[in-house]
Structure formats: C-alpha cells, structure tokens
Amino acid sequence: MTINNEEDYMTTLLVAKQYIKNFISKYEVYLKPLMKLIVALAAMMMINSRIGYMRRLDDISIVLIIALMCSFMPMNFIIFVAALFTVLHLYALSLECAVIVLVLFLVLFLLYFRFSPKDTLVVLLTPMCFIFKIPYAIPLAMGLLGTPASAVSVGCGITVHYLISYIADNAASFSGTEMEDMVARFRLIIDGFINNKDMFLTIVAFAATIIVVYLIRRMSVNYAWTIAVIAGALTDVIVLLVGDLMFDTNVPIGGVVIGSIFSVLIAMVVQFFAFNVDYSRTEKVQFEDDEYYYYVKAIPKITVAAPSRTVKKINTSRKRSAGGQSRK
Amino acid sequence: MINEEKVILMTKLASYESHEGKKDMLVLNYFRSDYIGFQVLKSVIAATIAFFALFAVYLFYNFEELMQDIYKMDLLEFGKSVVILYLCFVGGYGVISYILYATRYAKARKNLKSYHSNLRKIAGMYDNK
Questions:
Q1: Which of A151, A251, A257, A319 sits in a 20 to 30 Å window from B109, CA-based?
Q2: Contacts of B6 in chain A (CB under 8 A)
Q3: Count of CB contacts below 8 A, A vs B?
Q4: ipTM (interface pTM)
C-alpha cells in the first residue's frame, strides 16, 4: 500500500511539473519581465535597507520606477543598476568606500564578465542569498546548472558581499569626522577586506562545492543529481568547519548546518525543475520560399524526465480514478 | 503542397539565424587571426585598465610610506618590478583570452558549417522536385 502511495505521490509531482512547464512555456513572454521585476525590486530594496545612506535613492517610488525599467531591459541591466545604487549609496557615506567598491566592480567587469555575460546574475544573487541566510544554496544550484567556471562568478559574488557588509558593519567609523585622514580610512577598509579570513574560506568552500556537485552530477549513475547535491552540501559543511578550526574564523556552526539543510531543499527544488528539461523558448520565425510565406511558431516538445513507464502511470492514474485498476 | 520536412529544416535554420547564428556570423566576418588578435587586444586594454586601477589603490594604500621613502628607495628598481608585474599580469590574461577566443572561433565555424550543409540540403529538395 505504501508503495502505491509513494507512486501516487510521484505521479502527482510529475503532473505538477508538467503543468508548471506548460504554464511557463505558454506565458513566457509575461513571466520573464515579471521575474526581472521581482529580482530588481528585491535587489534594490535590499541594497537600500542595508546601505541606504543616500536619502534620495532610498525612496520606494524611485525603486519601483527603476525596477519597472529593468523588467524591459536585458538581464545585465539589473546588475548595472544594482552596482550603480551601491556605489552611489557608498559615495554618500564616504568617498573612499565608493572608490574601493567602484574599483572592485571595475576589475570584476573588465577581467571576468567580459567573458561570461551569462553568469553575471550570480554576482547579484550571491549577496542576496547571504542576506536571506541561505548562501549555501548558491554553490549547489550553480554546480547543478552551470560549469566549474561558475565558481569564479560565485567567488566574485562572495567578494562583493563581504566588502559591502564590512563597510556596512563599520559604517560609523568611516563616516565619522574623528578620522580626518582619508588615507587612514582607505587603509582601514582595505585591511578589513584583505584580512577577512571568513571571505577566503567561504570562497574556497563554495568553489569546492561547485566542482564536487558538477563532477558528480555528470556521472552516469542513478540519482546522480541527488547524490551530487548531498555530497556538495557535505563538502561545503566539512570545508567550512575544518577551515574554521584551522584558521580560527568565526563561522557560526549551527547556522552553517541549518542553512545547508535549507539549501539542500532549495537545490532539490532546482533539480526537480531543471533536471533534463529544456525550457528553451517558443520560437516564432518567418521565412519564405518561391511559393509561400511561412510564419512558423515552433513550440519545444515537452518530455517527462522520468522513464516512459512513469508516463504510462500518469495516463492510467486518470483512468483509475474513473474506475478500473488498469495498471499493467 | 507544403513539404513538411522542408518546413522543419527551414524553421531550424531560421531559428539559428536569429539567435546564435547572428553571433557566429559576426565572429566569422573576420579571419581567424584578425578575430583573435582583435579580441586579445581588447583583453590587453581591459587588463591594463584593471592593472592601473589596482596599482592606484596600492599606491594610495601605501601613500605615507612611499612619501617617506621616496628619496631613499631605488626608483628604477621599483619601476622595473612594476613593469615586470604588469607584463606578467597582462601576458597571463592575454593567453587565457587567446585560448578562449580560439575555442569560440572554432565553435562558430563548426555551427556555421552545419548550417551551410542544411542549406544545401534544402537546395537539394528544390532540385529534386
């Protein structure tokens, strides 16, 4: 009986997945701007609440207008706006902070994001996940969806997070008038940034996690993705804890464990939707030959990720509810 | 009558043309050496700007010490080490971008090749008719 229940449960999940996929491919035109709007809104509100030093920007109407603008622009525009917001807020705090963050952004952009414009969003999402206390979901998700090169993007995101939160935590000492000397303040920020063992440990742990998840998920064993997520989470926790012991950082152990458990759950959700699925867009193309004009709408075929046996179950489950026990 | 096979093939080609095809053709507008050379040049410029930004941060960070020691230290030696560091930085970055853009060029060429072979297939369909 329990087996039946389990199968029914799986069937329901698969049907739900099918339904969501249909929904996404049908309303993709509207969902994409909506997603961008939500991401932009969340990002700017977080920036404003964390480092809202410039009063004029910390205004919901401005945020809304810019978020609406972002929803119609390419994805990378959100990154640009978020970077601009950060620099402006920090400029209101102190010139040195703004300059240092600007240099960091400039270097990241010039050296890395010229190559991989697809990954740029991670630099924004990583600090956001840190604020939500689930940063461990990022390496798991990127290991599943990306390549080992994503480790660099995630590393950049971590760097940005730690620099900004260092500035935000010590804002009083940067803005106060007691320290007149610009050079001294400049040194203080750089010192705090470079001597941040937490940051380097997190970068190493996340990079290791991404590589572990990526390697395992590509193996041809059953449940490779699930094993990859769990092994990745364990790697993450172990590296963080060992690093904590070795370098005497103050990683909150309880937070790491609980955050990792939540992150595994999130990664499972990601896996459920991303596994073997191509959300490639519906194509509308036009062309002509000697005889016709063609206006073709090509819709990607939707296949259930499970083996075909399971597909049969979906069909029979409907019949079964109508009456007969027709399972093979 | 509409030839279904032909429509499918043409749809695929049209979809390629409007997405990756555009980028691939931009890439293949250049000769291989021109494309890679141009991209590596851009990388070198980007690396130079990044290097100078970081160097400025370094100078400002050590501002006081540098001001104190400026008459004592061997400026020529300092300049030499900066130049060596710069060359290593830019050289390393240039090599990485060379590898990357060489792969991209090869990939674009491969995509375009299969595009052309599909085009020929369509042309064959017309001839057979």
A1: A151
A2: 289
A3: 58
A4: 0.79
